[in-house]
């Protein structure tokens, strides 16, 4: 046993889980008219109804006790103060400094990082305003209106998904296109429809070493030169965002065209840095700033709100409850808002790259599950496919439903239907449908007894499936910022409880290393193959197919 599973808090939660497994949410709602109100909290434009969870006051208190035992608050304060909490990479974790509107300094190695952060924000603002005024001109004098954003992972998901979510706020004069994958089809398709004279390429790579991003930028450069641009015109059409200024300059980026970031900003937390430039280009700096301020509001809430009203704490503790005491292996995110459809993919990287770990503390292998599989898609589409498994399958899959109560230019009928499906799903998951109810429904159908019994069994829905519902008055930039920060802090709290380092990602490194070795064999077709038999065979087939 590890210290965590051996603790009295853990043991107590195990015995509470055994008791709760004998109960049904439907009975709790019937017995307690105050339940919904009691388990609803609101902050920063987000209202969370967590009453449809398998919890009692005792459970919540025990989970809060576990958080205290794991010193979550101490670890949280260490993060905000710039302590080196990413201990395997020896880095501070300060994405919160990028949205620090407190007027207070954030000290790292004896220096306030805020002046540099603010200077970069001013640079972004000036650049975005210039583009939007039509004053950012290409080499032939045409305004740059087509932006190609090249990046992958955190240097892609945040900008693309947050821009998508804020479609009602788009600035009309420019269009941003995203390229992430090294699959040539992607960049070819994007560039095929663009006029190079009006195109601005924003290359986003924190490390400036990511193969996909470097190659896609080289391809964009070759396309630009082939279309008529010359080497000296590149400076007008290519900018970069990176913490590796030297590599960016060596690559040929003009020094003025590099927007800096810092090693204390993790890739999956980087949309708040200059990596967010494509968002600002899409919605304008004012709205982009509102996004940052919404995240800042959630930071304050996370630091100041008591644990029983603290949204990130509540979501995190509920997750721990299901993962560690109910065997849940996944968590589904269900935004009932078309523009927020990318959010599950965003949280997928945030959560899985952060807490997909098995070492706690210095080197202890955990004897408890950690980060879950995160998945999901927009409602109501999922209802006509995978919801079946959540309702009647054998797995327990906690769900987060999300719905803006108002959307710009909404069609009342569509919006009411959307909301009714969202609420109806949470209700169906919670209450289910008993065998007796199914039999009663079938009674008038003139079926023989065996058919009726069988059909009723198939139609029975166990219910007791947990869900959270997050409501927003409107998903404006500020609320979206708060929502993203909410999930960041949820992931943080879970990592703090499990004792993992939520800020490194060694697991992805081996794949990158081996990918490069294999690339060498694909390119140098005469070289001997010295991998395992399967990999050798795959390489041989590729060599044959490609001459
Ligand atoms: O693939 C892992 C990763 O390191 C992510 O954490 C990161 O967001 C992505 O690659 C892109 O990295 P970079 O911004 O350095 O190109």
Poorly predicted ranges (pLDDT <50, ≥5 residues)?
Answer: none
CATH architecture of the largest domain: 3-Layer(aba) Sandwich
Q: If you average the pLDDT, what whole number results?
A: 97
Ends apart, CA distance between termini: 56 Å
Short note summarizing the structure:
With 547 residues, the protein is an alpha/beta fold. It is built from 23 helices and 15 strands. It binds 6-O-phosphono-beta-D-fructofuranose (F6P).
Account of the protein in words:
The structure is a single chain. The chain is an alpha/beta fold. It folds into 3 domains: 8-69 and 305-431 and 466-498, Glucose-6-phosphate isomerase like protein, domain 1 (Rossmann fold), CATH 3.40.50; 107-288, Glucose-6-phosphate isomerase like protein, domain 1 (Rossmann fold, 3-Layer(aba) Sandwich), CATH 3.40.50; 506-545. The chain is 49% helix and 12% strand. The strands form 4 sheets. It has a 6-stranded mixed beta sheet with strand order 1-2-15-14-10-13, sandwiched between helices. It has a 5-stranded parallel beta sheet with strand order 6-5-7-8-9, with helices on both faces. Strand 8 (238-242), helix 12 and strand 9 form a beta-alpha-beta unit. Helix 2 runs antiparallel to helix 5. It is globular. Residues 152-155, 205-207, 210, 213, 267-268, 353, 505, 508 line the site of 6-O-phosphono-beta-D-fructofuranose.
List descriptors:
single chain, alpha/beta, Rossmann fold, 3 domains, 6-stranded mixed sheet, 5-stranded parallel sheet, 12% strand, globular, binds 6-O-phosphono-beta-D-fructofuranose
């Amino acid at each position: 046993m590890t210290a965590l599973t051996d603790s009295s808090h853990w043991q107590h939660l195990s015995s509470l889980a055994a008791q709760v497994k004998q109960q049904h949410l439907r009975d709790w709602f019937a017995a307690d008219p105050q339940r919904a109100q009691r388990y609803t909290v609101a902050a920063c434009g987000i209202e969370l109804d967590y009453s449809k969870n398998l919890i009692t006051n005792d459970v919540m208190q025990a989970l809060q006790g576990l958080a205290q035992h794991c010193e979550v608050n101490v670890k949280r304060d260490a993060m905000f103060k710039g302590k080196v909490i990413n201990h395997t990479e020896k880095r501070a974790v300060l994405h919160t400094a990028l949205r620090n509107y407190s007027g207070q300094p954030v000290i790292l190695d004896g220096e306030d990082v805020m002046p540099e952060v603010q200077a970069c924000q001013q640079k972004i603002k000036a650049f975005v305003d210039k583009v939007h005024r039509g004053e950012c001109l290409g080499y032939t004098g045409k305004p740059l209106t087509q932006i190609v954003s090249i990046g992958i992972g955190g240097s892609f998901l945040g900008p693309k998904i947050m821009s998508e979510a804020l479609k009602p706020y788009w600035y009309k004069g420019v269009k941003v296109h995203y390229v992430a994958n090294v699959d040539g089809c992607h960049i070819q398709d994007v560039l095929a429809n663009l006029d190079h004279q009006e195109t601005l390429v924003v290359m986003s790579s924190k490390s400036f070493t990511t193969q996909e991003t470097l190659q896609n930028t080289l391809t964009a450069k070759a396309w630009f030169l082939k279309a008529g641009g010359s080497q000296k015109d590149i400076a007008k059409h290519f900018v970069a965002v990176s913490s590796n200024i030297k590599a960016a300059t060596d690559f040929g980026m003009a020094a003025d065209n590099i927007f800096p970031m810092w090693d204390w900003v993790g890739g999956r937390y980087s949309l708040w840095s200059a990596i967010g430039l494509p968002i600002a280009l899409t919605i304008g700096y004012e709205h982009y700033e509102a996004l940052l301020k919404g995240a800042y509001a959630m930071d304050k809430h996370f630091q100041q709100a008591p644990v029983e009203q603290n949204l990130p704490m509540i979501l995190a503790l509920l997750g721990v409850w299901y993962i560690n005491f109910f065997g849940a292996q996944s968590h589904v995110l269900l935004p009932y808002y078309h523009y927020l459809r990318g959010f599950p993919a965003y949280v997928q990287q945030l959560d899985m790259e952060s807490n997909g770990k098995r070492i706690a503390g210095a080197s202890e292998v955990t004897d408890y599950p950690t980060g879950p599989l995160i998945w999901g898609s927009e409602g109501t589409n999922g209802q006509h496919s995978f919801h079946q498994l959540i309702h009647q399958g054998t797995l327990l899959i906690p769900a987060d439903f999300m719905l803006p109560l108002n959307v710009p230019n909404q069609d009342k009928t569509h919006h009411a239907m959307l909301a009714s499906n969202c609420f109806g799903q949470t209700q169906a998951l919670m209450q289910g449908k008993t065998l007796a109810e199914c039999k009663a429904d079938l009674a008038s159908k003139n079926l023989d007894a065996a058919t009726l019994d069988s059909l009723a069994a198939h139609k029975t829905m166990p219910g007791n499936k947990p869900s959270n519902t997050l409501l927003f008055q409107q998903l404006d930039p500020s609320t979206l910022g708060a929502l993203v920060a909410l999930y960041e802090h949820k992931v943080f709290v879970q990592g703090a409880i499990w004792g993992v380092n939520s800020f490194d990602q060694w697991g992805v490194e081996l794949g990158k290393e081996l990918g490069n070795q294999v690339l060498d064999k694909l390119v140098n077709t005469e070289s001997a193959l010295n991998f395992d038999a399967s990999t050798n065979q795959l390489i041989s087939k590729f060599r044959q197919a490609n001459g």
